[in-house]
């Protein structure tokens, strides 16, 4: 902690960088009034407490760093209580002054590093070491703040976002470390319930903080989708679990209006769906646009990651036997009745040719769906052969127009359809390596499909033959 606090000797440089940061960046996540108030409060408290001994150029001399460190450590370990009556001064007092927390220091370090890397006129020789130090302590303060705080705070979330943005600039968007940072930030947001509209109730959160949280969530939603596309990974946050509204398109100054009347006047100038009417681009404008764009991106990502619905051959064979076979028996019987009695017809809308074609497809599927390693193969082959023979008889009668009654072979020979499955067949399939031709199908030549389907009990058969 002493090392972290000792970096406050750069306070004049940090102040300069952050002020230039806000003069150049118009879509900053953390509102300018909040950060500048924290910065001002930090300096005022250090001066009034006698911790700043002197100031020369871009450095200050700090005294009693151990005492500052102990104060920061104690404050960072206490819970932050947000009340709906908080204003900007009350909010800052929770994180700065006598309650200076490690995440506040880290936020200032991180924003100074981003400003120095992005916007400030740099001296490579002098600023290079400063940026490296600020990046290191930015990451260190983030880890320490999460470890110390009983629950994540708004400033921790701001720090995590700024740290992820900084690391993304230094390491590139394809850095796995940045993806992990975005994941940790997502966890913080979900833990605090920022994805639920109930979190932003006026009974729980002051208006300015609710809007800041909305901006934070929609920005993180955008980052998460962007990095998900970079890494070709599914989203962590999906819109089906989100009901938070878009932040209002207010400027930072309007958001922190001095009186309720000024705030209501600013809100009255917005459209019904929350957009500004003066055509200016604000931080909230960018946040709203990115959130809308990210919803489209989520649809693209989800489409790319839909689970394939490839059929399981073993399950498919069972379905064909248990569902398709009974339907085939009914349809083939209906066709056979037509050949025997020309006065009978199929229901309206059902063509004979369509039924025959579908039965042929089913017979083909039954003949090929089960592999030689599956015990269902014997059932499938038997059913396929029975349907094929039934169709041959029906087509033959249609072709010759000789409607002769076909005797019930199963009834006349007293051959039970299930008894055809002899132990010899089962033993031939036990090893699972024999060819299909090794199965003797001569006994399947003549039996009635309807009777076979009625007597066929897949559940009882499973007790004798294990289905793969």
Core attributes:
single chain, 468 residues, mainly alpha
Offer a quick outline of the entry.
This protein has helices spanning 2-6, 11-24, 32-48, 65-76, 88-95, 102-118, 124-148, 154-171, 176-191, 207-231, 252-255, 260-268, 283-304, 313-340, 352-368, 377-400, 409-413, 423-430, 449-455, 458-464, and strands spanning 52-56, 59-62. With 468 residues, it is mostly helical.
Architecture overview:
With 468 residues, the protein is mainly α. The chain is 62% helix and 2% strand. The chain contains 20 helices and two strands. A two-stranded antiparallel sheet has the order 1-2. Mean pLDDT is 79; it is low at 402-445 and 458-468. Residues 176-254 form the Xylanolytic transcriptional activator regulatory domain. It is found in: Nucleus. Its main location: nucleus. One of its GO terms (cellular component) is nucleus.
Number of helices: 20
- Spans of at least 5 consecutive residues whose pLDDT stays below 50 are 402-445, 458-468
Helix content: 55-70%
Count the E strands. 2
Distance between the termini: 63 Å
Structural class: mainly alpha
N to C succession of SSEs: HHHEEHHHHHHHHHHHHHHHHH
InterPro entries: Sec_Metabolite_Reg (IPR050613), XnlR_reg_dom (IPR007219)
GO molecular function, one term: DNA binding
Domain Xylanolytic transcriptional activator regulatory: 176-254
Main location: nucleus
Layout: helices, strands, pairs:
Layout (H helix, E strand, L loop, with lengths): L1 H5 L4 H14 L7 H17 L3 E5 L2 E4 L2 H12 L11 H8 L6 H17 L5 H25 L5 H18 L4 H16 L15 H25 L20 H4 L4 H9 L14 H22 L8 H28 L11 H17 L8 H24 L8 H5 L9 H8 L18 H7 L2 H7 L4
Antiparallel strand pairs: 1-2
Helix pairs in contact: 2-3, 2-6, 3-5, 6-7, 6-8, 7-8, 8-9, 9-10, 10-13, 14-15, 14-16, 14-19, 15-16
């Amino acid at each position: 902690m002493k090392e972290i606090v000792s970096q406050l000797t750069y306070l004049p440089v940090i102040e300069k960088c952050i002020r230039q940061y806000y003069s150049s960046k118009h879509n900053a996540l953390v509102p300018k009034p909040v950060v500048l108030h924290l910065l001002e409060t930090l300096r005022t408290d250090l001066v009034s407490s006698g911790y700043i001994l002197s100031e020369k150029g871009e450095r200050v001399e700090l005294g009693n760093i151990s005492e500052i460190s102990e104060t920061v450590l104690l404050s960072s370990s206490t819970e932050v209580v947000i009340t709906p009556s908080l204003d900007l001064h009350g909010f800052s007092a929770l994180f700065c002054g006598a309650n200076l927390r490690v995440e506040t220091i880290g936020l200032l370090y991180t924003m100074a590093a981003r400003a120095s890397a992005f916007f400030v006129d740099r001296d490579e020789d002098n600023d290079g070491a400063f940026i490296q130090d600020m990046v290191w302590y930015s990451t260190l303060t983030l880890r320490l703040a999460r470890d110390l705080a009983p629950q994540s705070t708004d400033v921790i979330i701001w720090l995590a976002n700024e740290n992820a943005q900084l690391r993304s600039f230094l390491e590139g968007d394809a850095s796995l470390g940045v993806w992990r940072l975005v994941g940790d930030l997502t966890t913080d947001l979900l833990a605090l319930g920022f994805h639920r509209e109930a979190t932003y109730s006026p009974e729980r959160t002051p208006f300015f903080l609710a809007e800041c949280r909305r901006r934070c969530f929609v920005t993180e939603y955008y980052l998460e989708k962007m990095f998900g596309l970079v890494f070709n990974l599914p989203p962590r946050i999906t819109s089906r679990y989100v009901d938070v509204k878009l932040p209002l398109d207010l400027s930072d100054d309007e958001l922190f209006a001095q009186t309720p009347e000024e705030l209501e006047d600013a809100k009255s100038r917005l459209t019904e769906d929350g957009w500004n009417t003066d055509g200016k681009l604000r931080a909230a404008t960018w946040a709203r646009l990115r959130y809308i764009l990210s919803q489209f991106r989520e649809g693209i990502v989800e489409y790319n990651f839909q689970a394939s619905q490839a059929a399981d051959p073993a399950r498919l064979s069972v379905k064909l036997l248990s569902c398709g076979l009974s339907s085939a028996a009914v349809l083939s019987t209906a066709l056979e009745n037509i050949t025997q009695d020309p006065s009978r017809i199929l229901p309206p809308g059902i063509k004979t040719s369509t039924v025959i074609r579908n039965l042929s497809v089913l017979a083909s599927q039954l003949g090929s769906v089960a592999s030689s390693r599956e015990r269902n193969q014997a059932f499938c082959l038997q059913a396929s052969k029975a349907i094929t023979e039934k169709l041959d008889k029906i087509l033959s009668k249609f072709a010759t127009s000789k409607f002769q009654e076909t005797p019930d072979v199963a009834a006349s020979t007293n051959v039970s359809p299930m008894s055809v499955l002899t132990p010899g067949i089962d033993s031939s399939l036990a090893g699972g390596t024999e060819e299909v031709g090794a199965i003797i199908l001569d006994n399947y030549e003549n039996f009635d499909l309807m009777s076979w389907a009625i007597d066929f009990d897949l559940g009882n058969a499973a007790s004798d033959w294990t289905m793969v």
